[in-house]
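Fill in residues.
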């Protein structure tokens, strides 16, 4: 059973505090039948009536305030050991997220570094060709062994000296 009440001045009948509405829900008497809960009040009624029986979260309750309330009902009866395990699991999840975030960032940086190195190698090879410098097998291996900093230094030397020692 659902009842809605508003305030009203007793003698004149003037409504007071129009923005204030009291809603009473008697869960044992409330029956929304088989239809899907539509309004927020119906969803909360469903939550209060069924929270203790739920094993999965129905779509009607998949909203942040209700998810938080469901989590609170799930954890309300935890023992100290269960709370410790719950907190440890949460910390493990945060650690895993942090590790994934760091790995992603490092992967991006490594990809940029590799791309820069490949681009510099191709540029140096094109410069050798333009300058008529023969790229022997030894020089090819040396070029492949250089990191980005070494490739930049070699490129700077080639710009000024036009030779590779």
């Amino acid at each position: 059973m659902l009842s809605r009440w508003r305030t009203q001045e007793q003698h004149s009948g003037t409504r007071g505090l129009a923005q204030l509405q009291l809603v009473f829900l008697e869960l044992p008497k409330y029956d929304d039948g088989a239809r899907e809960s539509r309004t927020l009040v119906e969803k909360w009624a469903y939550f209060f009536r069924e929270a203790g029986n739920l094993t999965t979260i129905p779509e009607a309750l998949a909203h942040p305030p209700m998810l938080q309330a469901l989590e609170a009902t799930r954890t309300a009866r935890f023992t100290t050991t269960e709370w410790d395990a719950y907190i440890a699991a949460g910390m493990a999840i945060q650690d895993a997220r942090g590790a994934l975030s760091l790995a992603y960032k490092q992967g991006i940086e490594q990809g940029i570094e590799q791309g820069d190195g490949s681009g510099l190698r191709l540029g140096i090879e094109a410069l050798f060709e333009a300058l008529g410098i023969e790229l022997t097998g030894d020089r090819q291996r040396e070029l492949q062994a250089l990191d980005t900093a070494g490739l930049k230094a070699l490129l700077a030397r080639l710009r000024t000296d036009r030779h590779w020692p």
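The mean pLDDT is 83.
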